[in-house]
Input
Amino acid sequence: MMTNEEIRLYLRRLDIPDIQPPSLAYLRELHRAHVEKLPWQTIDIVAGSPAPIDVRSSVNLMTGGRSGYCFHLNGAFSELLRSLGFTVFRHRAGVQPLGQEPRINSFHLGLTVSLPHENGEEERWIADVGLGDMPYEPLPLRAGSYEQGPFRYRVTASGVNSEGWRLEHDPGASFAGADFAPEAVDGLDVFQPKHEHYSTSPESPWIQLFLVRHRHATGSNELRGCIWSKREGTEVTKTELTTRSRWLEVLGDVFGERLVKYSPQEKEDLWKKVWSLHEAWKRSKADSQTE
Output
């Protein structure tokens, strides 16, 4: 469990002033703040300095002004919730890219929280802060469609695991959804080989893809390389960031990721790498259009 000081440091990062007893209202407040202020990102992987995913390291990332991707975000958030008195379960899960089949391959760490219903029975909630531009607030683990801002999500039975569930993304989103296994896992050991693949394998989708995402009440933001996509309601505005200063400004002011553990030289090296990847992407795009 986290100490009271660690809890307060974490809550300060979320701009939440007080420790409160577990409740659905408090869970919603924590969840909203987390997905707004602590983005999903591949920054450290692209930079060649991936952060470990043990719970202690992930908590230190969040309290130290950084963020991470699903293993870090949901790992730390589950520890915060447990330390606040919530009943939390970690689950193996898998994200389904567009055009591919659903899967539960442990490349995603999912969370559920059990809370007493007004009738006294326990009710399970999906509390996932590690999917980038997915739910802004927890969703009931109950089949149905749910609107949050401009996004519509659907909870349904998983076709991969008959006892599991599926969270479908908005039809216009960048991936189809995620499937979750019903059984809870205690530690994060099962996810360690997946993290190593994401972090070091030449076949990792993230090694050469700088990507930062977060949600807010009325939309979302994404920084893919040097393209900032801002979604407000149903409108999406795309802006190419062509200077290091503007790129760092958006990274810090929009996403709250100020690279606080990076030296000036490391920031410069990261920018040069991302800009090089961006130029290569533009060349490949231009070539494909002339074929």
Notes: The chain has a mean pLDDT of 96. The longest strand covers residues 87-97. Helices lie at 4-13, 24-37, 43-46, 55-63, 70-83, 192-200, 244-253, 264-290. The longest helix spans residues 264-290.
